[in-house]
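The data are quoted verbatim here:
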Amino acid sequence: MTSPDVPLTGRCFGDGTPLYEQYHDEEWGKPVHDEHALYERLALEGFQSGLAWITILRKRPAFRTAFADFDPEVVAEFGDEDVARLMADAGIVRNRAKIEATIANGRALRELHAAGRTLDEVLWSHAPDRTGYQRPAGWAGVPAQTPESRALAKELKSLGFRFVGPVTAYAAMQACGVVDDHLATCPSAWGSAGTGALAG
């Protein structure tokens, strides 16, 4: 492994907070293909909108309990009583629009499966070509949304998914490894390869 073009200065994010460090090291930017896991990531990114991600990480066990471990077939059957239950659950983010979107997305995913398709297929079909990609050294070089995330958001909305704008879609792409946006200064960017032009 050769040295990166910039000095390693620590994790992209999470240093000093064990839960955040674990998420950074073990999940963020790593490919995800399991349908339940993809549904969970999409839901949590929706709940994160306007909040700090560490807040969502800390509440993740409660979210999993509240939403049947993010089994879309189960969540798709949630009704008004479940919405009331979730709105009363202090362990999660009690935002009615986000709760109802998560339920609607369970139903959309169930319909997608019934049509013989998968969320995995939809999400990964929007992976960008990063041939010759140069990792930025700072967050200013990482976009909040891209043409691919805008296309993904458009397709998800056409399939009945809610609360999935281009920014949330891009955050989900990062969380599921569709793009790897670890900075050039981050050790995770150089864990298994090492040129200044790593593919994302």
Q: What stands out?
A: The longest helix spans residues 96-114. Residues 76 and 107 are 4 Å apart (CA to CA). Residues 192-200 have pLDDT under 50 and may be disordered. The radius of gyration is 17 Å.
